[in-house]
Amino acid sequence: MSKLRVTWNKSAIGYDKGQRLTLKAMGFRSLHQTVVHDDTRVIRGMINKVRHLVHVEEVPEE
Predict the structure, then answer these.
(1) pTM for the predicted model, two decimal places
(2) What is the DSSP string of 1-62?
(3) Of 5, 6, 10, 33, whose CB count within 10 A is highest?
(4) Cβ atoms of residues 49 and 15 within 8 Å
């Protein structure tokens, strides 16, 4: 299964509370932090909800 590297690039101040909670559920604690997740439908949906706040790239398989 492939992995996704997600980086939080833009502050969530002024956005919907649901979007802030989505960032927290994805494991983010601070701005410019990077987390790695499996590429699942659940994670893709979470990324879609906050796509204007994060940068996503696929991690190359080893």
Answers:
(1) 0.91
(2) --EEEEEE-S--TTS-HHHHHHHHHTT--STT-EEEEE--HHHHHHHHHTTTTEEEEEEPP-
(3) 6
(4) no
